[in-house]
């Protein structure tokens, strides 16, 4: 496995972590009888944090896509260098 592919998988793993973090935020921000936040504050917070996380996730997905492409090209170059020259 090439280093490019490993970095791409790491970027996708970071996306999963950010989605889990947002899910945790949503779960803890739900208004109940013991919470101090109301629906307005919850909506503002979730929209603000969601926008930032959406931008970060998009950048990580684009970086992973580019890294997978680089890994594919690197594998082709390595395969071409292993071929025996024709006599």
Structure description:
This protein has helices at 3-29, 39-82. Helix 1 packs antiparallel against helix 2 (39-82). The two termini are 31 Å apart. Helices cover 82% and strands 0% of the residues. The chain is mostly helical. The chain contains two helices and no strands. The mean pLDDT is 89.
**Fraction of residues in H or I helices:** over 70%
Q: Output the structural class.
A: mainly alpha
What are the segments in which pLDDT stays under 50 over at least 5 consecutive residues? none
Number of continuous helical runs: 2
Q: How far apart, in Å, are the first and last alpha carbons?
A: 31 Å
User: For the report, how would you describe the main beta sheet?
Assistant: none
Shape: rod-shaped
* Helix/strand order, N-terminal first: HH
What is the count of β-strands? Answer: 0
Determine the strand fraction and express it as a percent band: under 5%
* Arithmetic mean pLDDT: 89
Computed CA radius of gyration, to the nearest angstrom: 21 Å
